[in-house]
Design brief:
The complex is a heterotrimer of chains A (101), B (383) and C (409).
Chain A lengths: L14 E6 L2 E6 L4 H7 L6 E2 L6 E2 L12 E4 L2 E5 L10 E3 L10
Parallel strand pairs in A: 1-7
Antiparallel strand pairs in A: 1-2, 3-4, 5-6, 5-7
Chain B lengths: L3 E5 L3 H12 L3 E5 L15 E2 L8 H20 L10 E5 L2 H16 L5 E4 H7 L9 E4 L4 E2 L2 H14 L3 E3 L4 E7 L2 E7 L2 E4 L2 E4 L5 H6 L8 E10 L9 E4 H6 L14 E4 L5 E4 L13 H14 L8 E11 L6 E4 L6 E5 L5 H16 L22
Parallel strand pairs in B: 1-2, 1-12, 2-8, 4-14, 12-19
Antiparallel strand pairs in B: 3-7, 4-6, 5-6, 9-10, 10-11, 13-16, 13-17, 14-15, 15-16, 18-19
Helix pairs in contact in B: 1-5, 1-9, 2-9
Chain C lengths: L1 E7 L3 H12 L4 E4 L13 E3 L9 E3 H14 L3 E3 L4 E5 L3 E4 L6 E9 L3 E3 L12 E3 H10 L7 E5 L3 H12 L3 E8 L11 H14 L3 H9 L4 H8 L4 E4 L2 E13 L6 E7 L5 E10 L2 E4 L3 E3 L2 H5 L4 E4 L4 E4 L12 E3 L9 H18 L5 H17 L8 H22 L1
Parallel strand pairs in C: 1-2, 1-8, 2-5, 8-21, 10-17, 11-12, 11-17, 12-14
Antiparallel strand pairs in C: 3-4, 6-7, 7-8, 9-18, 13-14, 14-15, 15-16, 19-20
Helix pairs in contact in C: 1-2, 1-9, 3-4, 5-6, 5-7, 9-10
Classes of the chains: A mainly beta (101), B alpha/beta (383), C alpha/beta (409).
InterPro entries (chain A): 2Fe-2S-bd_N, 2Fe-2S_ferredoxin-like_sf
GO molecular function, one term (chain A): oxidoreductase activity
Protein name (chain A): 2Fe-2S iron-sulfur cluster protein
């Protein structure tokens, strides 16, 4: 199948850096966290609470919750739906003490 | 020949009775209109909270039942998620403290060594508890269980002893000859037995109405919130003292009867109850009630404001006017027994109810005064 | 917030509905869980044989942004990252937005689309095993490669189309396989049923890819399908499609490293003797689509199970009215079809609602109804080949329900 040429990268180069498990990751403004991570070769987002097995993207559109992570202290944010922001702190661990007094 | 008994209702009470009857070598058939624990037993929380029970017959029963729960997993050879993590009633202000102190004194007199601990000590046990909690009760004997799992375990254990579980059978009426029950009609078929025991919780009133027996059991709805899975945050059962206190306050502004009750399941979800409403058989959930329960939960545990709810559900608890269950033979019909009306105590009281009812049905002596639970106590009551 | 109409879902059906309603002066709000409007349009990028040759690219992203612009220009409010968690009667909709917590509305259009069915092949929870929808979204919307060496499990019109899109994006697609048969997966593991489904889809849709399957199965389908299955392998644009091989396990320690492949009999039984390992870092799972109906259950719509439409769906009439007054449905919630049908249904649901408010004439509703039929014919992808029969079953069930309701009233 032939297809009309469309530019493969049509996003503006507007770089945004955030922290994922103590590593600085740079993505492009407008990208969800999971996309920025995948662009940087990071596929594992969290570990299963029961078995400890690694987990990553599954459905990519917010239905399955497999890609959840703690974002700026809020647990269970879906990284496929949450856009990256400068200085954002993303963690695989569920740290629920953030909301405590 | 073996005694034949029909049990109506596959909740935790019916399955428990079926199990203890089958242990007594009775030929048991259980009829359930849907499935095991499909009604109230499958839509409640998991607490076996004893410290808040009023001294008297219910507390006596509950203590016996709690003893039985300690060895029930071994006896049924199943994991019931039983855990004796203790229990707390949270105290937020001086008025609540006063009310709860009186309650604790009563419990101490009744032989329960419930104590009052400081807010600091409470937070030591449950670190994420709000700083607004000034004190709390503590009793190490409170426990919890998976109610649905326990009902299924009772049913399987009964089946192992040859009890028959007839699911999707709707009991339409009783077969009565010369003032004695001889069986039931279910799914347009007649089934015969020497005795019949009615364990149909909130549905008991309508079932017994067909033979002109009036039972003052009405459904009382309770709504429960379920959170997403969390790491272990709560190791014990938690109630809030505000509900207990609000009942004594003038101008009660708690129309939904909300009293916080929190526990964590084995899988990590929190079950957050609950409300108490008389709204007939309506089992829908109400957004105002959900939000009100959530608000109170966040007051007690501020971290919950960032936690997602995955589901809400409601269950109908079989309420009786004097808050005691109805247990024993129905005097006007020979061979007909009732075990219903446990309201919020059904899970806590299931083992002892099963054991006592099996003894009564088999004509054995029970070492327990059953008088307070007799249906006769309502005989002169205007319903 | 007080509105005339609340639309749940900002996909092709929902946005088109909002445009039609806003054009007639109604106050409309659309809510969507995703962070931008467009729904599944956002991932779509393919050649459409029904469009003029010189400009035949169906670029869902562009279509979505044009529709969104049009809606917004007409005054439609679109709330993204918003979930409806409860709907109470006539109608109060509770949402997760932090500022707007309730929406009071006179009518509701449910356009929630579909979800993917799980395909629980052994090892499917490993990192690198993703759904075909995720593969499509990441490739076409986010322009990110989900992996370098990829296999597909599940052969259907959607997965073939996504595999081609991924290959075009420069990803090495090693092949497409069936899932290992299990209690949960049966028809999808059957080579004969798979091929027949593809063939039916190809007959109905004039897409050149699926004509390849059509060619093999003209005339007496079954016999020719059987003989064709002897070949074991078909290639489409260089992608091998193995109709007689199944992925039985996805392997890897920390993430996907390989898949185990076994031969299948024509009836879908595994040949235990022959086993092969294929080294890949990504597996795309295609279990098919399921109407996403939770919201219709929130409003207590009567539900019916019609497998030919894709599963359990809210009972509705030809003009997309449900059994609850004031609640309408459009798009994949009514049955699994493509974006063109969803858009046409979006318009129909809006006109049906406007007709009930006496704001349009019946002719316009009929016209909208007919354009759904046209869209169906012009759709390049057919997910459920017997969709028309499914629609007829729905019509019958609606009439049956009206009959019952008539007696009760």
């Amino acid at each position: 199948m032939k297809r009309k040429e469309i530019p493969y990268k049509d996003l503006k180069s507007d770089k945004v850096s955030f922290i994922f498990n103590d590593i600085t990751v740079t993505g492009v403004r407008g990208q969800p966290i999971a996309v920025a991570l995948m662009s940087n070769g990071i596929y594992t987002i969290r570990h299963c609470e029961v078995t400890g097995e690694p987990r990553g993207i599954y459905c990519g559109i917010g239905h399955c919750y497999e890609c959840r992570a703690t974002v700026n202290g809020i647990p269970s944010k879906r990284t496929c739906l949450t856009l990256i922001e400068e200085g954002m702190i993303v963690s695989s661990d569920t740290d629920i003490s953030y909301g405590a007094e | 020949m073996k005694q034949k008994v029909i049990v109506i209702g596959g909740g935790i009470i019916g399955t428990s009775i079926a199990y203890y009857l089958s242990k007594n070598e009775v030929d048991v058939t259980l009829f359930e209109s849907k499935d095991i624990a499909a009604g109230s037993s499958g839509s409640c929380d998991r607490a076996i909270m004893i410290q808040s029970k009023k001294p008297g017959p219910t507390l006596d029963l509950a203590l016996k039942s709690a003893e039985m729960y300690k060895t029930l997993e071994l006896e049924l050879e199943e994991d019931l998620e039983y855990r004796k993590g203790g229990g707390m009633i949270l105290i937020e202000n001086e008025f609540e403290l006063e009310v709860i102190q009186e309650m604790v004194e009563r419990q101490n007199q009744a032989g329960l060594d419930v104590s009052i601990i400081s807010g600091e000590d409470a937070r030591e046990k449950v670190p994420l508890l709000s700083k607004s909690i000034i004190a709390s009760t503590w009793w190490s004997e409170d426990a919890e269980i998976n109610p649905m799992g326990t009902a299924f375990a009772f049913a399987r254990a009964a089946q192992k002893r040859n009890a028959k579980m007839e699911l999707n059978y709707i009991v339409q009426g009783f077969l009565i000859e010369n003032g004695r029950v001889v069986g039931v009609k279910a799914n347009n078929e007649n089934f015969y037995a020497d005795g019949v025991v009615v364990c149909t919780g909130v549905w008991t009133k309508s079932l017994l109405q067909s033979i002109n027996i009036d039972v003052p059991i009405v459904p009382r709805k309770g709504e429960i919130l379920v959170t997403e899975r969390l790491p272990k945050v709560i190791d014990c059962n938690i109630l809030s003292g505000s509900y207990i206190a609000s009942k004594l306050q003038k101008g009660n502004d708690n129309p939904y009867g909300i009293g916080l009750a929190i526990g964590q399941t084995k899988s990590g979800t929190l079950l957050i109850g609950g409300s108490r409403e008389f709204v007939g058989f309506d089992s829908s959930t109400n957004s105002t009630v959900i939000r009100e329960i959530a608000k109170r939960a966040v007051q007690a545990f501020p971290f919950l404001k960032n936690v997602n709810l995955i589901r809400t559900f409601s269950g109908l608890r079989p309420f009786t006017p004097d808050n005691l269950p109805i247990l024993g033979e129905i005097p006007s019909v020979e061979g007909l027994f009732i075990a219903a009306g446990h309201e919020g105590d059904g899970i806590a009281l299931a083992p002892i109810t099963g054991k006592l009812m099996a003894e009564i049905i088999c004509g054995q002596n029970t070492d327990f005064d059953m008088e307070p639970f007799s249906i006769q106590r309502f005989a002169n009551m205007k319903i | 917030m007080d509105v005339d109409v609340l639309i749940v879902g900002a996909g092709p059906a929902g946005i088109v509905s909002s445009i039609e309603l806003a054009k007639r002066g109604l106050k409309v709000v659309v809510i969507d869980e995703y962070y931008k409007p467009g729904g599944r349009l956002l991932g779509q990028l393919y050649e459409d044989p029904n469009l003029p040759k010189e400009n035949n690219l169906w670029d869902g992203k562009v279509i979505a942004s044009k529709l969104t612009e049009e809606a917004v220009a007409l005054g439609v409010t679109i709330l993204c990252e918003t979930t409806a968690w409860k709907i109470e009667e006539q109608f109060i909709v509770y949402i997760t937005d932090t500022t707007v917590k309730e929406i009071h509305t006179k009518a509701i259009i449910l356009a929630t689309g579909a979800i993917e069915k799980a395909l629980p092949v052994k090892g499917w929870t490993k990192v690198g095993a993703i759904s075909v929808g995720a593969a499509q979204t990441f490739t076409n919307l986010h322009n990110v490669k989900v992996g370098s060496n990829v296999v597909f499990v599940g052969i259907d019109p959607l997965s073939i189309s996504v595999a081609l899109e991924m290959k075009h994006a420069g990803i090495n697609v090693l092949g497409m396989f069936l899932p290992a048969p299990s209690m949960l997966v049966s028809e999808k593991s059957n080579p004969k049923i798979t091929l027949e489904t593809l063939a039916l889809a190809s007959n109905l849709a004039p897409n050149k890819l699926f004509r390849i399957f059509g060619k093999f199965v003209k005339g007496k389908i079954s016999n020719l399908v059987l003989s064709m299955l002897k070949f074991n392998l078909i290639k489409i644009n260089g992608i091998p499609i193995y109709l007689r091989k199944a992925v039985t396990e996805i392997n890897g320690k920390r993430k996907v490293e390989s898949v185990t492949i076994k031969k299948l009999s024509v009836k879908g039984q595994i040949n235990r003797d022959q086993e092969k390992t294929l080294y890949v870092n990504t597996v795309c799972l295609s279990g098919g689509l399921l109407p996403l109906v939770d919201s219709s259950q929130l409003v207590n719509c009567e539900m019916v199970d019609i497998p030919k439409l894709g599963g359990i769906v809210p009972l509705h009439n030809q003009f997309l009215k449900t059994t609850i007054d004031g609640v309408y449905v459009a798009g994949n919630i009514t049955g699994i079809e493509g974006a063109k049908v969803a858009m046409a249904q979006g318009k129909l649901a809006a006109l049906s609602l406007l007709y009930d408010l006496q704001l349009v004439e019946q002719d316009e509703v009929i016209e909208a109804f007919e354009s759904v039929e046209v869209a169906r014919i012009e759709s390049p992808l057919q997910f459920y080949p017997e969709i028309k029969i499914g629609r007829q079953i729905m019509k019958d069930k609606w009439e049956e329900f009206q009959g019952v309701r008539g007696v009760v009233n």
